[in-house]
């Protein structure tokens, strides 16, 4: 289990004001930084699809990661259709599985939703829309553990990454007045393959909460705030 830290200021500048051309340009300049940030690629075969950095493709692309058909597989590389009648070689270190989906899980508290949690959630959502197609991104507004469990039981298999936006303590994630331990959060996210979890809730990067969450079978990798 890998646990990494995250600086809170990195996700606070919204990108909603960008036009389509600016978004595409920004996506490509950010693609190199995203090359190895999503995890190793499982084994693929010709005929599968994979997400590859737009910097490896010709021309301007609308997103930092583009889904392309796999034409051939080498020992540590894949060859994908470049969308223009050719093919390009991409290292498997920076290519990603077709099973890639991002869930922004905004866990509300009524009192700070409009002033804090919603703006933060929307900022994260806009950055994800630079990274990848909207079809792979969703934001869910909830206030209770039961809502999360109901959603994950029917739709959780579609997501490889879960970003938690809410309030926390060194030992819990808050759902209204309910304090959820790391083990309980891991349990409510248990659907499909294990996931990369990014917690933007303050204090949840502390050892007590992070250790419990990282031990959950639903969590493949945990990134948390260093605060």
Describe this structure in words.
Helix 4 packs parallel to helix 5. The strands form three sheets. This protein has a six-stranded parallel β-sheet with strand order 1-14-13-9-7-8, sandwiched between helices. Strands 5-4-3-2-6 form a five-stranded antiparallel β-sheet. A three-stranded antiparallel β-sheet has the order 10-11-12. With 227 residues, it is an alpha/beta fold. The chain has two domains: 26-97, SH3 type barrels; 101-225, Rossmann fold (3-Layer(aba) Sandwich), CATH 3.40.50. Mean pLDDT is 86; it is low at 7-37. 26% of the residues lie in helices and 31% in strands. Strand 3 (65-73) and strand 4 form a beta hairpin. The longest helix is centred in the middle third of the chain and has 19 residues, at 113-131. The protein has helices at residues 20-34, 113-131, 145-155, 182-188, 207-214, and strands at residues 2-6, 49-53, 65-73, 77-81, 87-91, 96-97, 102-107, 137-142, 161-165, 167-169, 172-175, 178-180, 195-199, 219-225.
Task: Please give the structural blueprint.
Blueprint: E1 2-6, H1 20-34, E2 49-53, E3 65-73, E4 77-81, E5 87-91, E6 96-97, E7 102-107, H2 113-131, E8 137-142, H3 145-155, E9 161-165, E10 167-169, E11 172-175, E12 178-180, H4 182-188, E13 195-199, H5 207-214, E14 219-225
Helix pairs in contact: 4-5
